[in-house]
Amino acid sequence: MPSDWLICTSFGTSFCPSFFSQHTMTGIIEKPRHSETSNNPYASRPNDVSALGVVDFADCDQCSRYPNRWSKIREHIAAPAAEFMGAFILCLLGCGGNCQANLSANKNVSASPAGNVVTSNLSWAIGLSLGVWISANYSGGHVNPAVTIALATVRGFPWKKVPIYLLAQLLGALCGAGVAYATYFNAISIVEGGSDIRTIAVTGNLFGTYAADYLPSVSAFFAEFIGSAMLLTGIFMATDKKNGPAPPGIVPVAIFFTVLGISSALGMDTGAALNPARDLGPRILTAMVGYGSAVFNFRNQYWLWCPTLGPIFGMIMAAFFYDAMLYRGSESITNKPSEEAERHHLHSCARQNKPRGVVETV
């Protein structure tokens, strides 16, 4: 008995046109696996798609890649959503780690400290590694405007995608810091001396980054520049296939150790922002919740030239240097072939691909 006839009889006439038009739907819908005498209650209910089980459209080359309307929308928002989630996790865990380590040192909050500089550094390292992990397969796992700009400048990442990536990263960082602030709101109020008191020196620096008092402006910029350059070098090192076949999932682990090393060795001077969104998002949050315009006026717009421009220039420089000295991938602008190399390549390929028996004539 033809399978199409079984579909028609089991599910009603709405599935029958494929039988009469010779365009079978058997590649999409399978006959329920039960006998005609089965006691399965689905057998007596025509058009009940539950009888089909789960239809996996991903295994069918002839089916639509969008099984429903939301899947089509998701296709367009997946990359920025992944960047948002990555930055959210980064700042939630990072700012949360800062708050726990510092607020718990106050005797009115906790009888004993619940963290220190090591746990704070671990929080940022874990936050970034998890942020990269959740977003890597959907957006590339940038989670950092400086990384996005460096890749667009040196590695051919489309510039048209840069604005939406930067916006998603900033909003994710803002929301992540917001959740951390809400979690520790009561402890912050105790340490500050009231819910209407908010100062940068006491708790504002748990969210945004601020240079140490002894550090001149040039040194602050250099600290962010060199730390960010080291971070991008670690990212390129972990993703370079010439460094050996990396096991699946190793990149987030490599980034964890890279961030942990940078924050442990270079974080004292400026707090090691290394990421414009990681600093600007929480900084905007603090301005919104009562810390005021002082978060932006600190050291003549410190937020712009140090934790924003420092990482951007540092990562661009590191990307150029790594690709010029080591990287051989064709997507890098340092490996773009010259016109002479292209002509030689085309001429050589034309001769090698010439069908046998064809005589070249002059």
Task: List the SSEs and their pairings.
Elements: H1 3-11, H2 17-20, H3 69-103, H4 117-139, H5 145-154, H6 162-183, H7 185-192, H8 217-239, H9 250-266, H10 276-291, H11 294-297, H12 302-305, H13 309-325, H14 339-352
Helix pairs in contact: 3-4, 3-6, 4-9, 5-6, 5-13, 6-10, 8-9, 8-13
How would you sum up this structure, described in words?
This protein is mainly alpha-helical and 362 residues long. 57% of the residues lie in helices and 0% in strands. The chain is built from 14 helices and no strands. α3 runs antiparallel to α4 and α3 (69-103) crosses α6.
| Mean pLDDT figure | 85
Secondary-structure element string:
HHHHHHHHHHHHHH
Strand content: under 5%
- Topology, number of strands: 0
Helix-strand category:
mainly alpha
Count of helix runs: 14
Strand count, sense and barrel status of the largest sheet are: none
What would you call the shape?
globular
Helix content: 55-70%
Specify Rg, calculated over alpha carbons: 29 Å
In the predicted model, the low-confidence regions spanning at least 5 consecutive residues are 3-46, 358-362
Terminal residue distance: 66 Å
